[in-house]
Amino acid sequence: MNKDNNNLFSIILASTVHDMKNSLGMMLDALNSILAELPVSQQGPGNTQYGIVQYESSRVNNSLMQLLALYKIENNQLPFNPSYHHLYDFIEEQILEHSPLLDAKGFSYKIDIDESLEVVFDEALLAMVISNIIGNAIRYAHSEILLTAEIDDGVTINICDDGPGYPAQMIELSGNYIQGINQSTGSTGLGLFFAQKIAIMHRHGNKTGHVELANGGPLGGGVFKITLP
Amino acid sequence: MQEPTLLMKKPLVRYSQKSVLVIEDFAEFARSLRGMMITMGSKKIDLVYNGEDAVQACKEKKYDIILSDYNLGDGKDGQQILEELISFKVLKTNSVFIMVTAENTTAMVMGALEYQPDSYLTKPFNGHILKSRLDKAIYKKDLLAPIARLERKKSWNEALEQCDLIIAENPKFKMACLRHKYVCYKALKRYDKALELTTKIVNERPIPWAMLGVGEIFFAKKEYERAIEIFNDMILEFPMVLEGYDWLAKVQYLLGRPVEAQQTLAKAVERSPKALKRQKLLGEIAEENEDIETMTSAFRQAVKFGANSAFASPDEFIKLTKSIGRQLKGNSDVDRQKLMDEAESVFSKLDNRFKNNPSVQFRSAVAHADFSSISNDEKKVDKYLSTANRLYDRIEEHMGSSESIEISESLKQLGQQELAECILEEAVEQYFDDPEFIKKAAKLTTNKNLIENSKKANQMNNKAIKFFSAKDYTQAADYFGKATQIAPNNVNINLNHVQTLLKNYQSGEKNKALLEKAESILSGITRLPFDDPRYERYSELSRLTQLILQSL
């Protein structure tokens, strides 16, 4: 494709994604108002279906955003805006995005990060990564999610759950997450591939960001680690 | 259900006490936003559906929270609203502005660094996220408001102290405070301090505002080559931060490299065509480079994007018609009819937009006559010249220096020598201390005395300024008086004179006559438009004079 065609496709893709996102938003709003009309006993924590709709919509939304972003990365159109952000606030917000599902499932979460910690990253891009991984963690967790951070050469964010952990063949991919997609494992493949791409965009000096998977960890389930230099 | 642990220990925001403005053209989503705010306890929520109403609402009422969609259909977008609210100073120092966007914010070009919202939210989001964002933004804004208030009063030293105080108590906001400290140091012209602060941050991590800061300080210290180096690095590192291009172009232009400056601005405009100011600058530099095609396209964009903006001025309209005129003159294979139609439509847009402003109408009529002579339409030339002559008597305000040159140039070409000389005469009286202007005026006028007199007035003015600097206020006032005899309507000299009289009064000689003299000079300045760059000084000196008179 020449440059003009690329631009055209990018515009079409962006506006279609925009449109679908609006539809999703409208659907969620409609659902909210239906919920509000239900008797109190049927609202809130007990209503698992609502949590599922919320979760699945946010998954669709996230995948759309990732697709658009990946397309832009391939064509060098994705702007990168690193800046200082408070890590705690950022992580808390990614959790809050999933609070309807957490509430519905009755899961608990814990953020163990120093509140005054300021870290450099691209907020919008990392939000897509973290939100998606948290969504996955909730999906596989038994009842608990833990988010921690370590400061060493840069920062490492750990997203831990108490589920069965990542399959061995995924851990072995270590960085080659493009292969994960081919195994038709669904969203996990795209999410990890995207996470890896975003991590690599973060650079400092001669260091580059990276992603790592492990099992065990403090909750005994899967651990997703993203390191940003 | 288990309570999530470690929820923020911030002071509770009482949303029932906060006034909220929701700006959203999509009724469904506006309702949903309002619903979220009501759930949080808000009671005072106003809804508007477009930018014009939003700006109006903010002028009438000081909102605590503003939630604005970025994309608002054909009118102003969210960024334009924010820029106008900041420029008109209608926001409180602790008002919180949240920009709601459909697309990921990284993918859209961010607004200028000085016009950033307190937060961006990407659709769709739930009430929890909105609340969390607002809680944090309000907490931060309230905490930093004392700094912002001192900065508004230009109390830079006190603001610096306040920054250190907040850093000591709330290390979480250190970075935000450092940015304020940089602003204060720059305002105080403590360049070494400002450079030390920004360099330290950049060495650890290049981030846009600090990198820009390093470059700006090199610029202020006149170390232009080093500034160029930084701004070049900045463009490589942050190609989406457009101030990098603006500054680079500014330095390149200053160093006499207008072609490079044009190329730099063209790159920025390619990334974000919507910036009115940048398009105008590109058009002006292209004009200087004789690149008429770029000039036309830049002013065309400026007119287009100015349609929704409070910052639109007649300049871009007139310049667009001038550039179209030059295309008609120079090139035979252009579509003449199409260009002529475009110019006519630009004139009618201009006349319509500024219909209550006689000096713009006058300027437009002259330019219209000029354009009609290029398209060889003698009837129209006569028509617009007679309109211009009729409008001239209705102009009450001083015309700017570049407008005066532009108008008298056209009038001379159209054979209206007499009117051209009138305009030059008035302008020379106003702007004789501007050497660039005098150079151009001298080429246009046939009245040799005019320039000679302006030189004399300028000498008096310069002498007076020397006495003023030496704190000899009596002598200074004397020479300003002499200068005003040659140029009685010159606003700058009159204001200099007033300032000297006040200084003279304050520094010892408590003679009431000095104040009365100042008052009488000020009352003679009646033709200064509000948007004139000298207006602020005029109103400040008027205020000061009244203050001293009342305290007697």
TrEMBL record, chain A:
Occurrences of domain Histidine kinase (ranges): 15-229
Known catalytic reactions: ATP + protein L-histidine = ADP + protein N-phospho-L-histidine
Enzyme class: transferase
Keyword tags: Kinase, Phosphoprotein, Transferase
Origin superkingdom: Bacteria
UniProt-listed Enzyme Commission number(s): 2.7.13.3
GO MF assignments: phosphorelay sensor kinase activity
Keyword Phosphoprotein listed: yes
Alphabetized InterPro entries for the sequence: HATPase_C_sf, HATPase_dom, His_kinase_dom, Sig_transdc_His_kin-like_C
Keyword Nucleotide-binding included in the entry's annotation: no
PANTHER family noted in UniProt: HYBRID SIGNAL TRANSDUCTION HISTIDINE KINASE C, TWO-COMPONENT HISTIDINE KINASE
Entry protein name: histidine kinase
Automatic annotation (TrEMBL), chain B:
GO biological process: phosphorelay signal transduction system
Keyword Phosphoprotein among UniProt keywords: yes
Key words, A-Z: Phosphoprotein, TPR repeat
Positions of modified residues (4-aspartylphosphate): D69
All residue ranges annotated as the Response regulatory domain in the record: 19-138
Keyword Kinase attributed: no
InterPro entries: CheY-like_superfamily, Sig_transdc_resp-reg_receiver, ST_Response_Regulator, TPR-like_helical_dom_sf, TPR_rpt
TPR repeat boundaries on the chain: 457-490
Name of the protein: Response regulator
Native source species: Aliikangiella coralliicola
Organism phylogeny: Bacteria, Pseudomonadati, Pseudomonadota, Gammaproteobacteria, Oceanospirillales
